[in-house]
Amino acid sequence: MRPVKTKDKTVLRSLGLGGYFGGGAEGMVDVKDGKIVRVRPLRYGWKYKKEDIRQWKMERNGKTIEPTWKSLPGPFSLAYKKRVYSPNRVPYPMKRIDWDPNGERNPQNRGKSKFVRISWDEAAELISSEIRRVHEKYGYNAILMQGDGHGECKTINTPHGHPGVLLEYLGGFTLQVRNPDSWEGWYWGAKHVWGQGAQGIMYPAANIIKDTIEHSDMVLFWGCDPETTPWGFVGQFASRLCYFLTEAGIDQVYVCPDCNYGAAIHADKWIPILPNTDAAMQLAIIYIWLTEGTYDKEYVKTHTVGMDKVADYVLGKEDGVPKTPEWASPKCGVPEWTIKALAREFGAKTTSIAHYFGGGFIRGPFSHEPARLECIMLGMQGLGGPGVHQHQWTYFGLPRAEGLGGTFFWNPEIEEQLALPVLSAVSAWQEQVIPKTLIQNAFLSDEPITFFGTGAQNALVADQFIKYTYPIEAEKKGSPIHMIWADSPCRITCWNYGHETEIAMRSPQIECFVAQHPWFENDCVYADIVLPANTYMEVDDIVTNIRQGTMQPNIMITEKAIEPIGESKSDAECVREVAKKFEGMEEEMTGGKTTADLQKAIWGYMGGEKLVSWEELKEKGYWIYPTAEDWDQDPPGFRKFYEDPEKHPLTTPTGKLEFYSEALAKAFPNDKERGPIPRWIEKSHNHDERLSSHRARVFPLLVMSNHGRWRVHAQCDDITWTRETPTMKVTGPDGYKYEPCWMHPSEAEKRGIKNGDIVKIYNERGIVLAGAYVTERLRPGVAYIDHGARHDPIKTGEIERGGAINTITPGAITSDNCVGQIGGGYLVEVQKVTGEEMDGWRRDFPEAFARKYDPAAGLRVEAWIDDGGDK
Ligand SMILES: Nc1nc2c(c(=O)[nH]1)N[C@H]1C(S)=C(S)[C@@H](COP(=O)(O)OP(=O)(O)OC[C@H]3O[C@@H](n4cnc5c(=O)[nH]c(N)nc54)[C@H](O)[C@@H]3O)O[C@H]1N2
Ligand SMILES: Nc1nc2c(c(=O)[nH]1)N[C@H]1C(S)=C(S)[C@@H](COP(=O)(O)OP(=O)(O)OC[C@H]3O[C@@H](n4cnc5c(=O)[nH]c(N)nc54)[C@H](O)[C@@H]3O)O[C@H]1N2
Ligand SMILES: [Mo]
């Protein structure tokens, strides 16, 4: 029998969903008859032999670990063809039916009225004439670009920021600055303790994995799930490493409210803590060390400042309250004997702490406090010494590759010469900026808003001491916002107080809202014009998979897999369609370069000639960096500082670990939330979200909101294969697939809730429907629901069916002088939704329940098209 031909071609992809930061989780895509038939891991040996690529090896107790010879993408990456062919794709340009730029704009109907098909030319004409009108009437700063967000790994067609390239040529624009969402606590807190690096997590991180493997007795996975979140960016190598720790006899202790997927497999001990109460337990650990003398006193003397002030607070000399385990236990929900045992183990054993990307516990109210306390704990145990580090588990810290360094991202030269928006999302470089956490305030308030620090992710710590105002002065062309161009329309689903954002999007001040997106979801619902962008399967590009968590860093040419779906265009092309309407602008933007020219130019910027000839790269499609011969010579983490703090100071004002920050004391003498030393804060005028609050009588559960195992934020909520798992969606009695809300059996029973029931999670900010998932894998006192479920409003600003929990997160920022966002650690109640209540909503909001819905993938795009998409 002749073998069946199962594919016509195989192309390469970087399947991580981090976006512009470069890729990871490489894959191979098989295409037959113009359709994607399967996505599979990349066999590194497809075009290379193992001998061609130097590999690394690490050892402990006679066991060894080395990279695998194929990539290990997460499940949603392997299922991504379902995302590409989703019934949720935007098929053609659309306009809201009752938005008329020459007549009534009906902003009050955003989120309610449907859309009609328009041609590409009409769309470009509408957008360009709106830009001209707004420029003339209000000036260029009246246009806001929302161009940040994660997304597919592309370079030339990078998911976010292209509108900014055009608007920049046309004069400028207001930038929505993406606050350091993953890093809030580290950025606003830890940076003041140890300086260093962009986001505030410990940096440099070279070789800390090797050093931990060789020297640590214990790793604390503190607010970390290595079996879930590494998937989003680089795949599953983090999992292998945890199995290796077990083999090598290194203890793994998990501190988290849920027995998360990593804990379930790898934990020697799980310590279930209440959300956002870590600071209490940390203080009690420090109390034990101080009273039992089990910390590195010599190191503290030579490497740190302010231990005395912290000790005064912890021992109760400052406020009369010693921060004992007995004091901490009712606050954090961990028995005092467990706290003591952990403190003693941590004090006696060589210990590192692992997070993946920030960690769930530093995105709550006052998140700078637990972050700073962790720096102090590590400092008290000799940070930088053998086996004492803070990890971003496998994201950083794997061996250095030869020749790595010449990358395209964050390279202003490339931005300038190739018109690629490489800097767009993370740096504030426009004169008028609005932090993403303050967007609704900006639209709803008549007063100017002020804030300390733009929050830009790569800003120096000095930025946090600068006061900014929006709008800037009129002489500097400051203006309130009147038009928005968003290529990452998921503010509602991923940021603070989404229900208020929904109301803000209806402000008459916003005269035109353009959303450019591959899928009709989330904020698109509130748009006036929607442009169909396409996915990485539909474009030629070039990407680097250089994240250290990628076991074999590489460059790859990603040849188009399929033709664009419907009338979609790449993000760059969408913007060029509009640019065509401005004389000479398209030529200006591209400099006459084709995609093929750009691929070669980018490879050149990366120092490509030194690595591999262009011809070889083109022919093989990818190039793997060998491990550097001298990789194990890099000093691990803070080792140089550890060895000689005078010669190798940190970047803090004193050059030491600042347990007490003189800079904060001077700049913000009246700050009760972020003082010069970290403290336990029961409540403030910004946040009253503790179980001790009178509010907890009505809202007695604390929300934990992780990063979805089966999604990357708002991405991939429509993948049919993963939606079948009960931890991704709970099928309600009405057939709708609800977002799971985990509850402990004791909490469920109290409320008469059974597994599979439709429940409502609510507080003063609104109601979110979910499906009950009753399990002992979550401690009592907590309601757990991931962020990012697809927005499906029943009543705008009030009731949400899709499960987008961020519609009811607090609107207030981290604390007075920190424009960070709150993801979890706030109060709610959960109740069973009765048949009567559901019937009432069905009666009052019939259009919300009549939307075209497909349980396998969720809402279909036709749900929002006026004629049901029949035209
Ligand atoms: N409750 C809670 N909230 C949180 C967090 C939490 O822990 N709890 N975590 C926070 C963190 S750390 C983060 S990073 C943010 C993430 O928030 P975002 O980065 O905003 O989330 P994403 O959904 O990954 O990406 C943004 C949008 O880009 C779209 N996109 C993807 N590829 C493309 C493309 O090629 N072109 C275009 N035009 N669009 C594309 C996606 O579909 C999505 O709508 O969420 C934050 N929110
Ligand atoms: N599958 C998948 N992968 C992703 C993403 C995704 O959305 N999905 N997002 C990507 C992005 S942008 C980021 S920033 C990273 C995020 O990576 P992480 O920051 O590591 O992820 P989180 O899920 O927010 O938090 C990790 C764990 O913290 C625990 N936790 C939650 N709240 C608390 C608390 O109050 N105290 C303590 N001690 N523990 C707590 C939970 O067990 C949770 O599993 O992941 C990246 N990778
Ligand atoms: Mo993030």
Automatic annotation (TrEMBL):
<dbReference type="Pfam" id="PF21423">
    <property type="entry name" value="AhtL-like_1st"/>
</dbReference>
<dbReference type="InterPro" id="IPR006656">
    <property type="entry name" value="Mopterin_OxRdtase"/>
</dbReference>
<dbReference type="GO" id="GO:0009061">
    <property type="term" value="P:anaerobic respiration"/>
</dbReference>
<dbReference type="GO" id="GO:0030151">
    <property type="term" value="F:molybdenum ion binding"/>
</dbReference>
<dbReference type="InterPro" id="IPR006655">
    <property type="entry name" value="Mopterin_OxRdtase_prok_CS"/>
</dbReference>
<dbReference type="Pfam" id="PF01568">
    <property type="entry name" value="Molydop_binding"/>
</dbReference>
<dbReference type="InterPro" id="IPR049032">
    <property type="entry name" value="AhtL-like_N"/>
</dbReference>
<dbReference type="InterPro" id="IPR006657">
    <property type="entry name" value="MoPterin_dinucl-bd_dom"/>
</dbReference>
<protein>
    <submittedName>
        <fullName>Trimethylamine-N-oxide reductase (Cytochrome c)</fullName>
    </submittedName>
</protein>
<comment type="similarity">
    <text>Belongs to the prokaryotic molybdopterin-containing oxidoreductase family.</text>
</comment>
<dbReference type="GO" id="GO:0016491">
    <property type="term" value="F:oxidoreductase activity"/>
</dbReference>
<dbReference type="GO" id="GO:0009055">
    <property type="term" value="F:electron transfer activity"/>
</dbReference>
<feature type="domain" description="Molybdopterin oxidoreductase">
    <location>
        <begin position="89"/>
        <end position="581"/>
    </location>
</feature>
<dbReference type="InterPro" id="IPR009010">
    <property type="entry name" value="Asp_de-COase-like_dom_sf"/>
</dbReference>
<feature type="domain" description="Molybdopterin dinucleotide-binding">
    <location>
        <begin position="731"/>
        <end position="813"/>
    </location>
</feature>
<keyword id="KW-0479">Metal-binding</keyword>
<keyword id="KW-0500">Molybdenum</keyword>
<dbReference type="GO" id="GO:0043546">
    <property type="term" value="F:molybdopterin cofactor binding"/>
</dbReference>
<dbReference type="GO" id="GO:0030288">
    <property type="term" value="C:outer membrane-bounded periplasmic space"/>
</dbReference>
<dbReference type="Pfam" id="PF00384">
    <property type="entry name" value="Molybdopterin"/>
</dbReference>
<feature type="domain" description="Pyrogallol hydroxytransferase large subunit-like N-terminal">
    <location>
        <begin position="29"/>
        <end position="81"/>
    </location>
</feature>
<dbReference type="InterPro" id="IPR050612">
    <property type="entry name" value="Prok_Mopterin_Oxidored"/>
</dbReference>
<keyword id="KW-0560">Oxidoreductase</keyword>
